[in-house]
Predict the structure.
Amino acid sequence: MSTSFPTPPVLNYTHSPAPRPVADNCTGAYVNALGMGFDASGLLGNTRSSRFVAVVEDCVVKSVVAEKEAPTVGVTAAEKVLESL
């Protein structure tokens, strides 16, 4: 998760290990390295992340999904991602 505010389906996920957020102290380094960052400095003051989910198992990225438009919540919805696990 690229957010520090998990949704209720994520908070109620009962399998192990539980999903966890990843952060980089607002530098944008993590999301830029993934190609998921965009410059929002004019409106929001810094680099922002596209909405995406990376499923990682044993330090290996198994899948990555990203929304095509910023306000959209479709393929990255918690229910969709948890169903795919």
Remarks:
- The helical segments are 8-11, 29-33, 41-44, 78-84.
- Residues 2 and 22 are 6 Å apart (CA to CA).
- The domain at 8-84 is CATH 3.40.30.10 (Glutaredoxin).
- The beta strands are 37-39, 47-49, 52-57, 60-66.
